[in-house]
Amino acid sequence: MEPEKIEESHLCTCDAIDEETLFMVTQTFKALSEPTRVRILHLLAQKEHSVNEIAEKLSLLQTTVSHQLRFLKNLRLVKYRRQGTTLFYSADDDHVMNLLQQTIHHARHH
């Protein structure tokens, strides 16, 4: 059986990636290269959680969770809503969450 060929329509017709896109791509992979951030994103893929809930479920310090959430929020990978004095975080980028879930699926079945 022949290897699957990539159709030309799926190939990028551009010769170079602009600097802003390159920065966002590398920052996204940087976000996904840190185990704590992957654990947080995986948890938020299921439903929204407060900082305290995330810290409790993942056995992390609240300050660690807050620091990682700030990093993820700056990349627009998570968003939050305020309810009183509590912030509830949820996933904010379906493309990256799909990439993460596919990668987890791949790792579990490899």
Care to give the gist of this entry?
With about 110 residues, the protein is an alpha+beta fold. The protein has helices at about 20-30, 35-45, 50-60, 60-75, 95-110, and strands spanning about 50, 80-85, 85-90.
Overview of the structural elements:
Pfam families: HTH_5. Keywords: DNA-binding, Transcription, Transcription regulation. This is ArsR family transcriptional regulator. 56% of the residues lie in helices and 13% in strands. The protein is of the alpha+beta class. The longest helix has 15 residues. It starts with 18 loop residues before the first helix and ends with a helix. The mean pLDDT is 89.
How are the secondary structure elements laid out?
Elements: H1 19-32, H2 35-46, E1 49-50, H3 51-58, H4 62-74, E2 78-83, E3 86-91, H5 94-108
Antiparallel strand pairs: 1-3, 2-3
GO molecular function, one term: DNA-binding transcription factor activity
Domain HTH arsR-type: 17-110
Keywords: DNA-binding, Transcription, Transcription regulation
The CATH architecture is: Orthogonal Bundle
Uncertain runs are none
Mind describing the biggest β-sheet? 3 strands, antiparallel
Share of residues in strands: 5-15%
Quickly count the domains.
1
Strand element count:
3
Strand order of the largest sheet: 1-3-2
Write the CATH homologous superfamily.
Winged helix-like DNA-binding domain superfamily/Winged helix DNA-binding domain
